[in-house]
Every structure is written in structure tokens, then in C-alpha cells.
Write a structure and sequence with these properties.
The complex is a heteropentamer, with one copy of chain A, two copies of chain B and two copies of chain C.
Chain A: H1 6-12, E1 17-21, H2 25-37, E2 44-48, H3 50-58, E3 65-67, H4 71-79, E4 89-93, E5 96-101, H5 116-120, E6 125-128, H6 134-145, H7 149-152, E7 156-159, H8 162-170, E8 176-180, H9 181-186, E9 190-195, E10 205-210, H10 217-226, H11 229-237, E11 241-242
Parallel strand pairs in A: 1-2, 1-3, 6-7, 6-8
Antiparallel strand pairs in A: 3-10, 4-10, 4-11, 5-8, 5-9
Helix pairs in contact in A: 3-4
Chain B: H1 4-37, H2 43-55, H3 58-69, H4 74-83, H5 91-116, H6 119-127, H7 132-143, H8 145-161, H9 164-170, H10 180-189, H11 194-221
Chain C: E1 3-11, E2 14-22, E3 26-30, H1 37-45, E4 52-57, E5 60-64, E6 69-70, H2 73-76, E7 80-81, H3 93-103, H4 113-120, H5 135-148, E8 154-157, H6 165-182, E9 186-189, H7 193-199, E10 202-205
Parallel strand pairs in C: 3-9, 3-10, 7-8, 8-9
Antiparallel strand pairs in C: 1-2, 1-4, 4-5, 5-6
Bound molecules: adenosine-5'-triphosphate (2 copies), molybdate ion (MOO) and magnesium ion (2 copies).
Molybdate ion (MOO) binds next to helix 6 of chain A.
Chain lengths: ~240, ~230, ~210, ~230, ~210
């Protein structure tokens, strides 16, 4: 292959390039497959941390769509006029759940004055890093609002992403963890102990937008497909909420 | 055994690592030579600069590469304007990231071997009619071969395992920048992806084993015997 | 003049000085251990730079601190048999012997590999690596390597110190022939007066 | 200049890296010695095993460490039952992760230097009354010093930069396992975190520079001169 | 008997064989370059294992392939001056000299550093590194190192080949004294018959 010839570039651009938060791997991959079955070139999707993807967009990487794990990085690009504002909208929503290893007997109802610290025993609470990962930020916000944060603030096991936290619970290395409902659903070795009330944290949303420099019409077409009833149904099968 | 997609990943990884290590070798050698032999002020700073990709977390290295080689970056902008080339989202960028990460390992290994070469042998070659370059090529270079081979193996292994700088710099694009570690990472993100992880990691290990055996055979063939009489 | 040498060099806390002005083809440097004989040869070969002085051999100016002349070793063409031999460990004996031969312009070569291997008695060693040679075998290979490089003059630093009498005599005869028939100037270092007598050398005392 | 929290991170990073490199050194040396000198079947497999942490992406290494050293893992379970010790979520675990990642670099550097030591010098020491161990300690070891120092510097630098294995294995616990790279990574994840990244990365670089200068000074003091007369 | 040696060793495609049965204190190995003299010393020192045979020196059995006796080098205590010297490059001259001395039991030591440095003329070199020594200086340090280790016997491989006549005579006198006054058995390799005459050695021919 001769990657640098203009012809090759033009050819490759027939399939849209989508940059997406790593936690969307299964669901968005399935959506791309479905889209391809409709006779379209299968979108090329790069799954990575939202921060890395946003910086790549800023550096001029040639891509068509961006799906962020939180609004902050989408805002970052919007401020720099790197996305088309009219194409931006919240594609998916999610819920925050408390999980325990599948065999764990722990019972706890989520609400004000919940005894989270006691339920942890001598163990740690697995979460995505509240200082950097969206899932962790939501968890901190929810626990703070429910008054449970002081009990656990110094007893966190902070994962690099929400799946790392999930793995700690699945392996039984942490007695409890806070992850997205979609993650809990995909991991048979964990059990959902309870779901955090939506009012306890800012809405969890995955914004989608078309990038300013996208010239590939397939990008817009795929974006529209993602908003279609068919795609929404597909995302709901993975546990996401849609609007 | 492997799916077509997985074969593609393996082929890409090999290409990226081979190009990374092959292109870095001359630079690594030159740096090793300067660090081992040249007298110049501030050598320690050059030494430190070579070590940077080791000290700084890989994602930071990737981010710095992105700043430099992005379309608006000093190097990337120039490449795009003058050559019409971009390494962003391309396998060439992945090779660049791997090369940067492998560089310190290669330099150190080569430098260690260069420092062990007895300069009296080069002097002998000079009296026999060899100019400085020829003495270098026929005496110093082959005597430093163990270090060069060690550098190649270390660099190749490091390239095969490079993840953070690559995904940060050139993203995770199947068929273009998704090397073995990125595919492994992706599998690791999926509940139940452990078997894929194990299979892909096994392939990485196999590839590096082949490189290792090849280098050992080369070293043996060249007769080692680096001792001075 | 064969040798027109006048140089000084500080080494540690002593000064090595040598004056050699001679028409003799073979000049022997004689002096106690540590006097500076090897240092003088290194300077003539261009491996060590004198602090000051002048070196001309066989009419060719090699070094002159006043005129800022300083030929690099490879342009001095000096056939140096080192006291510490310095065989190339990664090359076979044959490759060692051929190293300088291949670099020498044909018109300067005066001996072939077979002839050299013959009088040095190293024909059976050609495929060996230097590490496995005995002391005397290695010394003979070093002599052969220097002769095959087609040198314009020879620097011989105790070249037969590890050899038995018969072999020594044979090699000294060849050295005498090179001096007489080819007229190559030779600087010769030894501690053995019998070698000096055998070669009829003019003796220059170094240090003391 | 630095906040109290940042000082804590720096101190922790230093502790983790120093312990990792210090404890790994004897093992690295032993492995290097075996690879350089011993004749044993399947040496290439041992060699490959040493290279593993280089080839396999760091997060996979961290994940394997988690499997082995977790409370439910074979080693971790034993440690907990028998010694009442756990490394999970502890700075000791971070040091373990760093050690594993640094090992291949240290082994290679030391091995290169060991292979360059002339065994005839050890033989000479033996005739002078030194047993094999003493000959090793007084001749081989000091002559291999350049490699040991290079191994220490490489290992220390690698430890300072280690991210993937650490966060996967012992997660990111401020004051316990949050080393510089973890803090840097966290900052890099946030819009506007660039200045923190730059400051913390600058500290990493400074620390490695100090290690580098120290090793160069040590090498110089020991007189180098590794050539055989 | 001082020496009761009978051994064979295959080296490459030739066999080195030596039989030495002698009451003489000083036995010289004489033979052309490559005959196997150094190999014999290496076997007596315990550095090379003979294919078969027996080695006893001064009544002590060091090796016997039939009885499966094979003392390691450090228990043979042999004061070996190597043909290739093998000074420790990372240690100063003084540290080289002291290396064996510190390991020797006091009752075996028969000379002190000052005395050794005196007759070898190396007192001014004590702080230097071996690399910077001249050939003869290094050879003298190697002699000193072997003598200071309090050896039970000496293996001297062309120990004075790089030395001037005066220094050579001085050292040979010391060797003769060690043989006569201390009664140490000595195996001596040289190509120089004058050394043999000076020492009144019994000569054993090796190879040929
Ligand atoms: N780097 C150095 N520092 C100090 N002194 C040195 C250095 N290199 C050489 N010398 C000294 O210079 C003197 C001359 O050395 P050189 O090798 O020329 O002697 P030589 O006459 O060849 O002796 P030999 O007959 O023993 O080979 C010696 O005393 C040696 O110790
Ligand atoms: N590894 C080897 N392979 C083949 N031949 C070897 C090897 N090592 C030594 N030899 C040969 O064994 C023979 C004996 O060597 P040794 O060093 O004992 O000779 P020597 O009598 O000491 O000679 P010299 O007087 O030249 O020092 C030599 O011909 C040498 O080439
Ligand atoms: O997509 Mo996330 O970064 O796991 O919240
Ligand atoms: Mg000399
Ligand atoms: Mg010999």
C-alpha cells in the first residue's frame, strides 16, 4: 500500500473516521457493523480516552465524528471551533450503579446516610479516578450529595478507567465498586447492588458531533444513522439510555 | 488460529516495529558514539535528553509528539506544507512513536559496547592505512556488535509493547495504527476479552522470541570473542 | 637522511626527549624499561602527538610543530609492530594479515601473503582467531600484518621477544633483507644486544 | 513552587523507584550472569522470559500482576495467609510493578558488560588465591560496573516513568500508589491540565537528570579503564 | 621430587604432551613457539584441565585423572607470571601487588611490598593504573604480584622478556635466591639460553 498518495487518501476517506470514548467499544462497534450491513463502507472507529481523542482533533487529525465520554472535552473542542455546533447533541445517557462481586452477600440501599464505609469492611471502593475520569467524577458527585463521600474518600481504588474499576470488583479484589450500568451489565462476575438516583449527579451523557474539518459526506450520514430509531434500539440493548 | 483481522494487526505491528527500529538504528548509533567518545560540553544534557522518553510517562511523550507533529505543530506543519505528508493517524506515526520510545534503550546498549572497544585497536588500524571512517567501520563497529544486537532486540521488544505514546499520538485506528498492544488494550476493555488478550499477548511474545533467537544466532556467527589479545 | 627526529613529550611527571639524526637504514632505540622507546615509536607513527618537535623519515616530513604539519597515521604508512601486538580479535589470522594489504596501493606492496606466512611459519594458523594463538604465534602474525601493509618504513617494538632462536634468526634475516634490498628505514626497539649485533644497527640511547 | 500534595507525590515516586531498582539489582545481576556465562539448556527461553515485560503492553503486565498478587491470586493469597502481607493497593505493589518493568533493561545492560569482561583476569585472580566468589566480587563485578550503572540508570528512569502496570495493578491511591506518572496522567485527562503536566513532567526529568549525573560521576571515580592491558 | 608431571592435552588438531620428573628446583621448559609451554603452565596452575595425567609439585598432588583429584587454582598457590601479564585494569599497581598478598596466609608470605618494589624498580608506579605502564613496567608488576601472593611454587612464562639487561640480571638473581633460600620449585619458560645458563636450570624440551 502507498499510504501517502493523494489517491489512496481520497479512497480511504470513503469510510468515515469516528473517534469515540473507549467505553463505547461494544455498542458503537455494533452500530458500525449494522450500518455496514446497509451497504455503507464500515466506519473506521478509533477507541481511546476522550482526552487523547480531543487533543488529536485539536492537532488536526483527519476525522469526521467525535463521541466523547463527557461534555467537558466536547466543550473544549467547541470553544476552539473544531466541531460543527449544529451537529452536536447528547447521543447516549447512562446510569451509575454500585456493584459487588457476583457471590457477595452485601446488601445496601443507596440513599442519604447509606453505610457505605461499613459495607466496605476493610476493603476499598473501586471507582474510576475521580480526578480525571468522567465516571469517577460522577461517582464522587453522587457520594458527596448522599453524604457518603467522607466515609470512603481515603479508601478508594482509583482505576485508570471505569473498566479497570470493574475488573477489580469482578476479581474480588474490591468488595464494592461504582461503574456505569452498561459496564455492570456486560460483566457476569459482578452483581448490581443498587442504582444511584439520577438526581444525585449531573446527567451522564455522551455527546456526539461532527468535526469542523470533516469533508466526508459519509460522516454526516453515519451521524444521522446513530440518531435513527434502529441505532437507538441497538444502544438500548447495551443498557444505554437515548433521547 | 488467528482471524484475518488479527493477522492484519500482527503484520502491522511487525511493520511498525521493524521500521521504527531500522530507522532509529543509525541515529541511536550516532548518539551512542557521541556519548561514548566525543568530548563536548553539556554532554550530560544530551544524555538526559536521550533518556527522556523513558522517564516521562508514555502518554506524555505521545502528547508531545502530537504537539510537534500535529498539523499546527512546528514539524508537522512543515511536513504538511512542504512535503504534503502527515503522520497523524498513520502507521508512520506509530513507527515514529515506537522509535522515540525505543531510542534510549538502543543508545545505552550500543554505548556500553562502544565504551568497551579498545581504542588501541583503532590506532592499529590507522597505522595500517585505514582512515578514521574505515577504522570505525571495520574495527569499532564490528567489535560493538553485541551492543548493536542487544539494542536491536531491546528496541524491537519495546516497540512491540509500545502502547501509551502510540494511542495518544496516532490514536487507535484499525488497520492503520492499531498495533498489537492497542488491540490487546481494546480486548482488555471488554468483559470476557481475556482469551483475546491472552492470544494476542502470546503472539507478541512469540514475535520477540523469534527476534531474540535471530540476534543470538547472529552474535554467535560473528564469533563474539570481543576480547583483546 | 633516513631519520630526522627531534621531539619532546611530557608523560606524567617526566619528559621524554629523543633526537635521532641518522643516515643508517636501521636505527635501534636502546634504553631501560620505561625510558620512552614505545612513546617515540607512537609519535613517529602519528598515534601520539609530541608536545614539540619535528619528525621526518626517509625524506618525508611527517610532523613539524613549527610548520603545523601533522600527517594522520594512515598517511604515514609505517608498518608498526606493536609491543602489545593489537591483533584484531574479531578477524581471523588471514583477515588480520590482509587488513593493511588491501588498503596499500599495489606499487607499495613488496611481499605476498604466502611468502610472509612461509618465513613466519604461520601458514597453518590462517583460519584461527587471534585469541587462540600462543604468544609467539601472535607476535609473528603482528609482524606479518605490518609487512603486508606495504609500509614506507618500519617501527618494530621488540618484535621477536617471544620467539625461539631459530625462528628469530629467520625473521631477523628477512628484516635485514627488507632494509638492504628495499631500502626501508627501520626503527627497532630491543633489549637484546645480540639482535643489535645481528642487524648491525646504529644504536640511539633513549632516556635513562 | 510545588504544593504539599505534589511534594508527597515526588517523595513517593522516589521511594518507589529506589526500592524497585535497589531490590531488583541482585536479581538482575544473577540473571545477567546466568545469561552471559552459564551453559544451560533453554537459555533462550529464560532470555525471552526476562524480556516479557518489555514486549507485553504495561497494562497487561499490571493485569497479570493483579492476577498473581491479588488477594485471590496464587502468590497474593499465599502472602496474605502466611505472612499477613498484601501488596495490592500498597506502595510496595507499585515498587513491584516498577521492578518488573525495569528488570529487562537492567539485565541487558549488566549482561553486556559481563560479556565484555575478560575471563583470563578471573583466572589470574584464582591463581592468586581467590575462590570463585571472591574472584567474581573483586574482578568481574567491578569490571562490569559500567553495565551495572547503566542498568541502574535505565531501571530508575523506567521506574520513574512507569504508568500502565502500576495503575492497573495497584490503582491510583493518593499518598500510597500515586506516583508522578499517575498524577501526570490524571492531569492530562483534564481540559486545562497542561500546566500541571508540564510541571510534574519537569520534576521527573530533573530527578532522572540527578540520577544520571550521579552515575556518571560514579563511573568516572571508578576510573573506567575497563580495557585489558 | 620437585616436579612429577605427566600429562596430555588435545589442542585443536595437535596433542600437547609433557613429562617432567625432576628433583631440580628450577626446571626450564624449552621449545619452539607454539609447542605448548604456556599450555603446560596453565595445566599446572589448574586453569586448563589436562585430558589425562598427573601433576604433583613439591610433593603435593594437584591433579590426577586416575584418582579424580583436581585442586582448584586457588588451592594450588602457584605464583604464576602470565605471558600476557593479566594485570587487573581497574586496580592501581599497588592494589594489583597486594591482591594475592592479602589472601595468602601470613606464614606463606616471604617478601614484603617494599622489598619487591625495590628490586623490581616499581616503587614510583604504585599509584598508577596498569594501562599507563610501559611493557617492561607491566611485566615487573606482574612478577611482583605473583611473588607477594606467598606461592608454594612459581610458574614463570618468559618473565623478563621485555626487560633490559641490568634489570633482568637483578630479577634473575632474586629468582635464584627464592629457589635456593626458600626452596620453592620453579617452572620457567624462556627462549633465551643465557637465562637458562644464568639460572643453571634443568631443561625439559616441550613439543617440537
Ligand atoms: N598515561 C601515562 N601517565 C603517566 N606516565 C605514563 C603514561 N603513559 C606512559 N607513561 C610513562 O611513560 C614512560 C615511557 O613509556 P614507554 O612505554 O614509552 O616506555 P618504553 O621505553 O617503551 O619501556 P619498555 O621497554 O618497558 O616497554 C613510562 O615510564 C611510562 O610509565
Ligand atoms: N583454542 C585453541 N584452538 C586451537 N589451538 C589452540 C588453541 N589454544 C591454543 N592452541 C594452540 O596450542 C599450541 C600451544 O600453545 P601454547 O600457548 O601452549 O604455546 P607456547 O609453547 O607457549 O608458545 P609460545 O612460545 O609462542 O608462547 C599453539 O600452537 C596454539 O596455537
Ligand atoms: O468512557 Mo469513560 O472515560 O470510561 O467514563
Ligand atoms: Mg615499550
Ligand atoms: Mg607461550
Amino acid at each position: 500500500p502507498a499510504p501517502f498518495t493523494p489517491a489512496a487518501r481520497a479512497d480511504a476517506s470513503r469510510a468515515p473516521v469516528v473517534l469515540a470514548a473507549a467505553s463505547l467499544q461494544e455498542s458503537l462497534g455494533a452500530a458500525a457493523d449494522a450500518w455496514a450491513r446497509h451497504g455503507h463502507p464500515r466506519p473506521v472507529i478509533s477507541f481511546a480516552a476522550s482526552s487523547a481523542l480531543a487533543r488529536q482533533v485539536e492537532a488536526g487529525a483527519p476525522a469526521d465524528l467525535f463521541v466523547s465520554a463527557d461534555e467537558a472535552w466536547m466543550d473544549y473542542l467547541a470553544q476552539r471551533r473544531l466541531v460543527r455546533p449544529e451537529t452536536r447533541l447528547a447521543l447516549l445517557t447512562n446510569r451509575l450503579v454500585l456493584v459487588a462481586p457476583a457471590g457477595s452477600p452485601v446488601r445496601l440501599s443507596i440513599g442519604p446516610r447509606m453505610a457505605l464505609g461499613a459495607a466496605l469492611g476493610s476493603g476499598r471502593l473501586a471507582v474510576a479516578d475521580p480526578d480525571s475520569v468522567p465516571a469517577g467524577r460522577y461517582a464522587r458527585e453522587a457520594l458527596t450529595r448522599l453524604g457518603a463521600w467522607p466515609q470512603v474518600a481515603r479508601r478508594l481504588a482509583r482505576g485508570e478507567n471505569v473498566r479497570a474499576a470493574l475488573a477489580l470488583v469482578a476479581r474480588g479484589e474490591a468488595p464494592l465498586g461504582i461503574v456505569y450500568a452498561t459496564d455492570a451489565r456486560a460483566e457476569p462476575r459482578v452483581r448490581v447492588v443498587g442504582t444511584f438516583p439520577p438526581a444525585s449527579h449531573a446527567p451522564i451523557s455522551y455527546p456526539l458531533a461532527r468535526l469542523a474539518r470533516s469533508a466526508n459526506p459519509e460522516g454526516e450520514a453515519f451521524r444521522r444513522y446513530l440518531l435513527s430509531p434502529e441505532a437507538r434500539a441497538l444502544f438500548r440493548r447495551f443498557g444505554f439510555g437515548t433521547r | 488460529m488467528l482471524t484475518a483481522g488479527e493477522w492484519q494487526i500482527v503484520a502491522l505491528s511487525l511493520k511498525v516495529s521493524a521500521v521504527a527500529v531500522g530507522l532509529t538504528l543509525p541515529l541511536a548509533f550516532a548518539l551512542a558514539w557521541v556519548l561514548a567518545r566525543a568530548r563536548l560540553p553539556g554532554k550530560v544534557l544530551l544524555d538526559a535528553a536521550v533518556h527522556l522518553p523513558l522517564v516521562v510517562p508514555p502518554v506524555v511523550t505521545g502528547w508531545l509528539l502530537l504537539l510537534a507533529f500535529g498539523a499546527n505543530g512546528p514539524i508537522g506543519g512543515w511536513l504538511e506544507r512542504v512535503l504534503g505528508v502527515t503522520v497523524l493517524f498513520r502507521w508512520t506515526g506509530a513507527a515514529l512513536a515506537s522509535a522515540v520510545m525505543a531510542l534510549p534503550l538502543m543508545v545505552r546498549a550500543i554505548r556500553l559496547s562502544l565504551e568497551a572497544v579498545d581504542p588501541r585497536l583503532e590506532a592499529a588500524a590507522r597505522t595500517l592505512g585505514a582512515g578514521p571512517w574505515r577504522a570505525f567501520a571495520t574495527i569499532t563497529l564490528p567489535l560493538a556488535l553485541p551492543g548493536v544486537l542487544a539494542g536491536l532486540v531491546l528496541g524491537f521488544a519495546r516497540s512491540l509493547g509500545e502502547f501509551g505514546a502510540t494511542i495518544t499520538f496516532v490514536s487507535n485506528i484499525p488497520g492503520e495504527t492499531q498495533t498489537l498492544p492497542l488491540a490487546i488494550y481494546a480486548a482488555l476493555q471488554m468483559p470476557g476479552g481475556e482469551s483475546t488478550v491472552a492470544r494476542l499477548a502470546g503472539i507478541s511474545v512469540l514475535l520477540s522470541l523469534v527476534a531474540l533467537v535471530a540476534s543470538e544466532m547472529l552474535a554467535r556467527r560473528s564469533g563474539k570473542g570481543a576480547h583483546v589479545l | 637522511m633516513s631519520f630526522d627526529i627531534d621531539l619532546t613529550l611530557r608523560r606524567g611527571n617526566r619528559t621524554i626527549a629523543a633526537r635521532i639524526a641518522s643516515h643508517a637504514r636501521l636505527v635501534a632505540l636502546f634504553g631501560p624499561s620505561g625510558a620512552g622507546k614505545t612513546s617515540v615509536l607512537d609519535m613517529v607513527a602519528g598515534l601520539v602527538r609530541p608536545d614539540a618537535g619535528r619528525i621526518a623519515v626517509g625524506g618525508a616530513l611527517l610532523f613539524d610543530s613549527a610548520q603545523a604539519v601533522n600527517l594522520p597515521p594512515e598517511r604515514r604508512a609505517c608498518g608498526y609492530v606493536f609491543q602489545d601486538l593489537r591483533l584484531f580479535p574479531h578477524r581471523s589470522v588471514a583477515q588480520n594479515l590482509r587488513y593493511g594489504e588491501r588498503l596499500a596501493p599495489p606499487e607499495r606492496r613488496f611481499m605476498g601473503l604466502d611468502e610472509v606466512a612461509g618465513f613466519l611459519g604461520i601458514g597453518h594458523l590462517l583460519d584461527r582467531r587471534p585469541r587462540s594463538l600462543s604468544g609467539g604465534e601472535a607476535q609473528r602474525v603482528a609482524i606479518g600484518r605490518a609487512l603486508l601493509a606495504g609500509p614506507r618504513f618500519l617501527l618494530l617494538d621488540e618484535p621477536v621477544s617471544s620467539l625461539d632462536a631459530a625462528r628469530r634468526e629467520e625473521i631477523l634475516a628477512v628484516i635485514a633483507r627488507i632494509r638492504d634490498e628495499l631500502g626501508l628505514p627501520i626503527l627497532y626497539v630491543t633489549h637484546d644486544e645480540r639482535e643489535l649485533a645481528r642487524l648491525g644497527a646504529e644504536v640511539v640511547a633513549i632516556g635513562g
